Amino acid sequence: MFDDLKEYALINHIPIIKDEGLSFLLLNIKKYNIKDVLEVGSAIGYSALNMASLGAKVTTIERNLDMYNEAINNISKYNFQDKIEVVYMDALSYTPNKLYDLIFIDAAKAQNQKFFLRFTPFLKVGGIVIIDNLNFHGLIDEIDDIKSKNLRSMLKKIKAFREWLIDNSDYKSEIIDVGDGMSISIKLK
Ligand code: SAH
Ligand code: MG
Q: What are phi and psi of 186, to 5 degrees?
């Protein structure tokens, strides 16, 4: 759904979720009967609209004003204002005021652990966390060949995060080679 938004994102180089990753996300929303979603990183509202079209209520956080405005416009265009709330803020300053069934993290890739620690207190036991771009465009396995120091440093952070996540015994986590690499973690206690 929302193919016009998908096309707009492709033309304008806005990094929306890949088709395969979106299918994985939506499949899990159905499988776990997700009602309330917290999304970190709205961009133009494409993933939020897709999740809301399954009936979930979505709170989505975006720190870039242009992206925020585009998300707001797209959400009104499709009449999902009562299903999706867009928060214009840096997610690291936002404190939720309710508990969620799903946290979808799709923002600054070097900050995954910070987002995870900040928001999982607001995840119900049995709830899930899904994170996008853990393969970072396939570069994760080529770290040593990367010339740019900044990129190498970010890839190392993503790699360290993957290990931290798998070792976190409060969650049962899997990293799946779908889309651009996604994790799914179930909160055990
Ligand atoms: N989930 C969207 C794509 C998000 S792209 C989709 O699939 O349709 C990542 C977005 O995260 C960008 O728009 C970027 O501005 C935003 N972002 C990055 N770091 C952030 C932060 N700390 N707080 C809020 N938004 C952030
Ligand atoms: Mg993404």
A: -105, 130
